[in-house]
Amino acid sequence: MKLCRFDEDRLGVVVDGSIRDITDIQSEIRDKAAYDMKGDAVVAALPEYRERMEVAANSAPEIAVSDVKLLPPIARQCKTMAAPVNYEAHVAEMAAQPHITGEDKGPRRPSGIQNQGIFLKANSAVVGPSEGVAIRFPDRRNDHEVEFVIIIGKTGSRIKREDAMDYVAGYTLGLDMTVRGIEDRSFRKSCDGYAPVGPWMVTADEIPDPGNVPFTVHLNGKLQQDAHTRDLIFDVPRLIEFASEFYTIHPGDYLFTGSPPGVSEVHPGDVMHCACDLIGDMSVAVRAAE
Ligand code: MN
What we know:
Elements: E1 2-6, E2 10-15, E3 18-21, H1 23-32, H2 41-59, E4 62-64, E5 70-71, E6 80-82, H3 88-95, H4 98-101, H5 113-116, E7 119-121, E8 126-127, E9 133-135, E10 142-144, E11 146-152, E12 168-175, E13 178-179, H6 185-188, E14 195-203, E15 214-219, E16 222-228, H7 236-246, E17 254-256, E18 264-265, E19 271-276, E20 280-288
Helix pairs in contact: 1-2
The structure holds manganese (II) ion.
């Protein structure tokens, strides 16, 4: 099932390329959820409500995807996690261009995801594809990093690799937008709008092997990142195991799995088009911040 959020906080199921509005079910779930729950009520309720959602979608009127404003698929994630340096070829391209990172003048961090850990992007950086990215520092280099994104399905801590897939609600695509420079990574990757996510969540059953997912981003029509999740250094179960050693993970949490090679600079006026046959595609426009 493909679940999207659209317009003014509405919930839809995407069927054969069109949206079926099931906002009534979203309202019912939220009315029953505790205000202080950690995580997203709709994701937490999916095991119980999924069948009803699919039945309701069958009789709901069709809305064209092109007629709505797509929001991020999760309304209230507890956190937005991201893997650094998780494709060998991206590690190599960054090592070859130290002037881009600005990190060549100081002591270098130990390399490798095992040493660098998982980092956090501010939840306030997350936007839907329709909102676009506003470039806050036009004089500095701003890069796109298209990434395969895990959406966590239930609360867990210190999860073992062999149990990790039980904690996945689904997947989506994300752009880990980045201002290059010497500040802390989390700071540079948390500007407003620097985490577009979408176009929707695909439930885990539709991607039985998350290690076999090709995806791309085109910048202004030119292929920039042509990626495959088989090249991940830490694969999906290992990332969940690793993140949950440090954090309790909650329903709706995003986990960006790291950037493949091919990152490049974006400027106001550019359009990034992310695509994955197993998920969907989204266009994200770049503009100047006000
Ligand atoms: Mn990244």
